[in-house]
Amino acid sequence: MKRTVESSRFISVLEFARRGYFRNPQRISWVWLRDGKVTAIAVIEIGRKELEIRWLGSTQSAQQIGINWTRCRFGGQRPWFRCRCGKSVIRVYSSSSGLFACRSCCRLTYASRQARPRHRLWLRAQKVRIALGGSRNMLDKFPVRPRYMHHKRYDRLHQQHNEASQRALGMSAVQLSRLSGRLRR
Question: How far is CA 122 from the centre of its chain?
């Protein structure tokens, strides 16, 4: 199986901009968590034109990542990371070597691309549940309509959830009948 975007460490230029890190040069510590546990820590020196990343506790040399700025239509500027391949990207991911690069340079794929069709349908139904503030568990009650959500949108999401889960159940039933046929032999 290929490494996925969802399981990889990344940094987002938009997150840095939202936090105001580009206003003046500064040094920050960036922590990655998985299941509430620290998986990695990096020290990042942020400037207007580039940032420098050092893994804490590593002998690996620092990596510089360039930052491009583009003008927005209605004023202001938007930052982009400049990958070593030349692409301007919002996120850079940690590759297996520990260096940060864009998704294509790290050869990352999305988890949904590797899932079987019936699992994709389950993922789609779970995504609707999470968007409505519920849990992924399909056995839990369907989430109630959020306070400020339009009824039409809620009904459309509920319908998408039901269609995806019904199709997934149908595909699972076919799979189970195939397996039971094999067991009888």
Answer: 18
Number of domains the chain is built from? 2
SS3 content of the chain, % helix, strand, coil (to 5): 30, 30, 40
Per-residue pLDDT tens over the stretch 82-98: 999 999 999 999 987 78
Q: Is residue 4 part of a domain?
A: no
The CA–CA distances, whole Å, from 4 to 1, 10, 59, 108 equal 9, 12, 26, 5
pTM of the predicted structure, to 2 decimals = 0.68
Q: Mark which of 69, 101, 133 sits at the end of a domain.
A: 101
